[in-house]
Specification:
Number of helices: 10
Structural class: alpha+beta
Helix content: 25-40%
Number of domains: 2
Order of helices and strands: HEHHEEHEEEEEEHHHHHH
Distance between the termini: 64 Å
Radius of gyration: 31 Å
């Protein structure tokens, strides 16, 4: 039996890593729990600026908003989940986390952080932080995040609004990797290429990070222990940052709602593999077309209304066809009762009705659903001994005429 190279290498890596994992588990880290935490609220490194209220300006042509938003949503659709599953050779390690936040004053938080570390459940003074990250301690504590030691990974991003407040972007401020999220025993090196994906969701909604994040950032190559600072943009400047995500829009019903900030961070070993992974994420046209259409219907009121009108029009046509076919079948059954020689015409009309009735969804109030092709064949046109009058009368009175 032929065994694939990928299967063998995976099995070997798993076997070689087993003792390492066992040894790591024997040394309990400090704190109450380990993992990744999203922190929302105060900034540690970003320049403080006024929080923004997401509302369109009064002087913007409202007819243009759906067009602009449709273009933005189409750009934001991607295929992270499939790309990850197909990136075995690229060795991409994903980390996902989320955090609830609530803005009753209708404002968005200025900053968010993703921290991979061990944590305390309550505030605690802890020494041993990386020197440059020490600056983040106060902001994280203010946001309810309490690392028990210097984080293995830290990211801070700023949510910035367009000048007319119709769209938003995620701007990276700082990214720091003390050690990578994963390693391979058969491949040395700890440098990683990092990407970040953001979505903001309402209660009960899926984070959708694997199909349609609101913002996508390529944070570039990271070397363990080296802080990466990204260009800042002065408050009120007329230009954006070179690392900013594409603009994204939020539905109007997000204003003043309890929300969840969802982040997916990926680390890929090797620049060329990362570019291949990132290209897969952003290039699947069949997914972007369909997902973009669904997002537009969900997030853009006019597009959603147009889709609803089109769907209702289609349904009306189906109902009209079924009702007309039913009326025709009733007339033909009446003719059959008056003259059994008209039985063949009655059967043809009944078949047309069943086809139209079957096109309606189950539970539709216009759907009859009790006439079948088998019942139609009880009208035995070819049998000279059959009681055609009884069969036509039964179908008319007990099935077709019954609401």
């Amino acid at each position: 039996m032929k065994v694939s190279r990928h299967f063998v290498s995976t099995a070997v890596v798993a076997a070689l890593l087993t003792p390492v994992v066992a040894q790591a588990r024997s040394e309990a880290p400090p704190g109450d729990f380990q993992g990744a935490v999203v922190s929302v609220g105060q900034c540690a490194f970003a320049v403080p600026r006024a929080e923004v209220i997401p509302q369109p300006p009064a002087n913007l042509d409202k007819a243009l908003l759906p067009v602009i938003a449709a273009g933005l949503i189409t750009q934001l659709v991607n295929k992270v989940g499939t790309a990850l599953s197909n990136a075995g050779e690229a060795k991409t390690w994903p980390t996902q986390a989320g955090r609830n936040f609530e803005r009753k004053d209708k404002k968005l938080p200025q900053c968010l952080q993703l921290v991979r570390a061990s944590f305390f459940n309550q505030p605690s003074t802890q020494i041993g932080w990386n020197g440059e990250l020490e600056k983040a301690r106060a902001a994280l504590a203010a946001n309810g995040t309490f690392p028990a030691a210097s984080p293995d990974y830290f990211f801070e991003g700023e949510i910035v609004a367009s000048s007319d407040s119709t769209a938003f972007a995620l701007r990276p401020v700082v990214s720091f990797m003390a050690k990578p999220a994963g390693a391979r025993a058969l491949r040395s090196g700890a440098d990683r290429v990092v990407a970040m994906f953001l979505s903001i969701t309402k209660p009960g909604d899926s984070p959708a990070l694997a199909t349609a994040p609101g913002a996508t950032l390529k944070l570039g190559s990271h070397r363990p222990g080296v802080m990466k600072y990204y260009p800042t943009v002065a408050d009120g400047a007329a230009f954006s940052g070179p690392y900013d995500s594409a603009w994204f829009v939020l539905p109007k019903d997000y204003i003043g709602q309890p929300l969840t900030m969802n982040l997916l961070q990926t680390e890929t070993q090797g620049e060329s593999q990362f570019l291949r992974f990132f290209g897969t994420v952003l290039s699947d046209k069949s997914v972007t077309d369909e997902a973009g259409k669904q997002l537009q219907q969900t997030f853009i009121p006019s597009v959603g209304t147009a889709a609803a009108v089109a769907a209702q029009s289609t349904l009306n046509t189906q109902r009209n066809t079924a009702e007309t076919a039913r009326a025709t079948a009733l007339d033909k059954l009446d003719a059959c009762i008056a003259n059994p020689a008209k039985a063949a015409e009655a059967k043809q009309a009944l078949r047309a009705f069943v086809a139209a009735d079957s096109a309606l969804e189950q539970g539709d109030p216009a759907k009859l659903g009790n006439v079948t092709y088998a019942l139609i064949e009880t009208i035995k046109v070819a049998d000279p001994n059959a009681n055609i009058l009884t069969a036509c009368t039964n179908l008319r009175n007990n099935y077709l005429a019954t609401p």
